[in-house]
Amino acid sequence: MTNTRSFDLNLLPVLEALLSEEQVSRAARRLNLSQPATSAALARLRDAFDDPLLIRDGRGMVPSHLARQLQPRLAALIAEIESVITPQATFDPATTKRRFTIAANDYAVSAVLSRVVARLHETAPAASVEILPLEEHFSDRLAIADFDLAIRDDWSLRSLRNRETLFHEAYVCIARSDHPRLSPTPTIDEFLAEGHVLIAPRADTSGPVDAALARIGARRTIAVTTPHFLAAPAMVAETDYVMTIARRIAEQMAVYHRLRLFEPPVPVSGFDVAMAWPAQRQGDPAVDWLRQQIHDVL
Known about the structure:
By secondary structure, the chain is α/β, with parallel strands linked by helices. The chain folds into three domains: 4-85, Orthogonal Bundle (Arc Repressor Mutant, subunit A), CATH 1.10.10; 99-168 and 272-297, D-Maltodextrin-Binding Protein, domain 2 (3-Layer(aba) Sandwich), CATH 3.40.190.10; 171-268, D-Maltodextrin-Binding Protein, domain 2, CATH 3.40.190.10. Helices cover 42% and strands 21% of the residues. The chain has helices at 11-21, 24-31, 35-49, 65-85, 106-123, 139-143, 154-157, 188-193, 208-214, 231-237, 247-256, 285-297, and strands at residues 54-57, 60-63, 99-104, 128-133, 149-153, 163-169, 171-176, 195-199, 221-226, 242-246, 259-262, 271-276. Helix 9 (208-214) links the parallel strand 8 and strand 9 (221-226). Helix 1 (11-21) packs across helix 4 (65-85).
């Protein structure tokens, strides 16, 4: 056979039709080609394989020994090539049993994924979801496509090409609903007079509120530092402490705890939340569908 690099793969369906029909005219009709074009393709095939492939036998033609060896493998080979060139782009959420893997921090799990999981339970009942912890340094895992999606603040994902901003998150303050000293709209002095709970996943000793206070020459008292988004509101509900937290988390926690929400007495910059996915997942119809579900519930 000639060099495989120069072989025209378009000739394989012609060969399959010729060996099945054992006649040029019937193969031409099956392929919707003219008879001269089919004969020319047969000539090219004979040259490529250095074999007659079809041999005249009376009024008909019969496959050569090589052709008989090739014939059982042709259909599967053609199907495999077609699947590579034109990959299957269908995805049926109603029947899929895919296991989606999503890397997220505590905030993203509460603010985003609780609703996403509820949506998937309805629209893809046979699918499953694995939520993985999202460390600060996860580039290596993203590079090897260890998960389908990652969700966290956009700043942390800014270097990644495949990402989308989902929404902007604002900060709000919370305190227990029967706090003995805070007015309905707490002033900066009231705010600073109370102890504060700080969520610090990286064991930080300050946060965005402290940066905002520093701009006006003020400081607050940090009474509790914790890495846990969900535990902190419970602490606030049981004490006189106040806390500044992402609005979506505050609104969720206010349903379960005796909390009141109020605007920070100083402007505090919020943050964008984004999702990113490995390059290997680009164009994956299942991941495309999952991303759309996330957009739909937000």
